[in-house]
Amino acid sequence: MLQTRIIPPAENAHDTPLLLKRLLLSGIRYEKTREIVYRDLVRYSYATFNERVARLANVLSEAGVKAGDTVAVMDWDSHRYLECMFAIPMIGAVLHTINIRLSAEQILYTMNHADDKFVLVNSEFVPLYKSIEAQLTTVEKTLLLTDEAEKTADLGNLVGEYENLLAAASPRYDFPDFDENSVATTFYTTGTTGNPKGVYFTHRQLVLHTLAEASVLGSLDSVRLLGTNDVYMPITPMFHVHAWGIPYAATMLGLKQVYPGRYDPELLVQLWQKEKVTFSHCVPTILQMVLNAKAGQGLDFGGWKIIIGGSALNRSLYQAAKARGIQLTAAYGMSETCPLISCAHINEELLAGSEDERITYRIKAGVPVPLVEAAIMSADGKLLPADGETQGELVLRAPWLTMGYFREPQKGAELWEHGWLHTGDVATLDDFGFIDIRDRIKDVIKTGGEWLSSLELEDLISRHPAVREVAVVGIPDPQWGERPFSLLVLHDGQVLDAKGLKEHLKPFVEQGHINKWAIPSQIAVVTDIPKTSVGKLDKKRIRTDIAQWQAAGSAFLSTL
After folding, report:
1. Catalytic pick from 48, 138, 189, 360?
2. Residue from 218, 225, 245 nearest 234 by CA
3. What is the pTM for the complete model shown?
4. Is 451 a residue of the active site?
5. Which of 100, 385, 398, 557 could serve as a FRET partner for 180 with CA atoms 20 to 30 Å apart?
């Protein structure tokens, strides 16, 4: 082991732990009169926010929540959720952000698996909660969250209603120091098989992630996204990786924050106008909903900067958003990575190139952010060249990656095989440092001994003017192993069949972007493409649907 020089601290020095409370105290330091807004219902200052966090800490402590207990939240994106993101971990408890879009059976599993002892339930989810309440094994008390005038609900062991309890609580709380490696948050990520898996993050990890995120989003001039004068509105659920961690950064910097509750595209547009929102983040499907909202038709969204993650950002969506005044920037991460890993950066060499080349790099997964190591690994654990051509699994190291899966040591060992976190993504690294995600390992189409990228096909198909949304999957083929199948949603009044799609893709074959076997021989035009609980394309369900359509000989299948 390397022998380093270690100097012990002076006798009276304070060894400051990296705790979330340090982030909370910064926001009011910068902008104590800035507002935190919830829909068109609530607005208050940072000074009030800090008081409310203290009040919530008192409510939870008086209800019996102790350090190490897990406190679950079932709510839409709200000021209450932001308060919970600070108050719960700051008293030493663990915040469990429940994915309310999972099935009742999956929610039950996650709550029992996480040992939830205290649950904050939005009134909209009371029927869902009641359907599983009798099977919960560890929950001791509940607390009601509501926007309604009615301040009670049929919840077992109900402590009371959130606002009434906060109003009666003290606005002061002496948040203690404790070990920065204490777990602060947990949530469950869904895979294609088996039960959801619990990931978890410590105070230290969340603080380091916040500092890196703020430095990247605020300091890289080519993608300057987040500064103290921006107005922030998340369009990524707060139950999903802490809304990508950005509420922590926004609070640390004292930004005006706007929380939209349940996502309604019409309300999102209205809030963008009224509150003068300048920065958001979302998956491509949510952005499509906003662009298609009636309230947004004919509207210039100039000045709105949006990070796209969760799914690949294709050129068609980038250009459609740009035509409406929106600056899109691609970023990459996953539930296990807290989530930020990389963000697009246009360096001096790229700035000197063409606009087309710059777009190519703006829509890639981006360059690893500070403190992140990225590499490409073969199936046998060997690191591969970062030459922009050699493909392998993207593997990662960073201070904020989850150290395993809660109570599943074997799966955690698989996640960290060879000492790197395995993403399950096929990618390349180039000499600019860019990560280019080619596909999920499970979604690569294996045809005739070659690998085809479903993401690349989706990007090329999306450039057809008739196509509003596209998903490509591999389906079994007796001759080639697999063949690509394309699922399309078309713009109103448009028509496209398999032959028309082939004509659209032929130039890309001739230019060498894809080979001729990449052209789907069968497509289906549908009104909606299945999505996961966080808005990603649900390719597992798509494959199942296609198999059923083929077996039934559905009339809407178009074949070359």
Report:
1. 189
2. 245
3. 0.88
4. yes
5. 100
